[in-house]
Amino acid sequence: MNARRGWIEVVCGSMFSGKTEELIRRLNRAKIARQRVEIFKPALDTRYHELDVVSHNANSIRSTPIPIAQEMLLLAGSCDVVGVDEAQFFDESLVDVCVQLANRGSRVIVAGLDMDFLGKPFGPMPALMAVAEYVTKVHAVCVCCGEIASYSFRITASESKILLGETDSYEARCRPCFLDGMREKNTEPTSAAAKH
User: How far is it, in rounded angstroms, from Cα 57 to Cα 46?
Assistant: First the structure.
């Protein structure tokens, strides 16, 4: 029987809620404890840095960008702690990879958006939350009213499921302000067409 006990932790929430900040905090504590730590992020996420995982507060930690989740199984080796940032950008195989790592005895800490810009469950995140021992949902502040925000409202016209961006593309919003924004977006094309 494996002497180490593995488990999965998920940190989720909207954009600007502090998910990556919390991931970095947990990983740095593991490093202080002299645990072997490996951190991964999707290769497509190059917003702040090619290699580092960087929070909105500019805190960073070295990571390994990978194109597919399965690479973690080879690269994590016998790590005590495995961190994954921007998990929503990986495909559904991430769930099985995280389970395998935890079964090997690794503590797996995953951070990602739980909902996309339409307010729908995002990628592998719902399944990861289901198999995780610990789930932490963090919140942002609604830019419209100041209440707690759980939604990432896209302020650009793009309908692409994946659109890397920051405050130029997204706002954190509470449920009522998110719904108001979605209603406004859905009526804009109709009212513009009516003018012609």
Answer: 16
The tokens of 57 are what? 């507060």
Please report where in the chains the tokens 């012609």 appear, as a residue: 196
Asked if residue 122 belongs to a known ligand binding site, the reply is no
pTM comes to 0.85
Give the tens place of pLDDT for each residue, 115-146: 999 999 999 999 999 999 999 999 999 999 99
Distance CA 95, CA 130 (A): 10
Q: Tell me if 164 is assigned to a ligand binding site.
A: yes
What positions carry a catalytic annotation?
A: 86
pLDDT digit string, tens, across residues 82-94: 999 999 999 999 9
Establish whether 86 is an annotated binding residue: yes
Query: What's 154's DSSP letter?
Result: E
Domains of the chain and any CATH numbers = 7-139 (3.40.50.300)
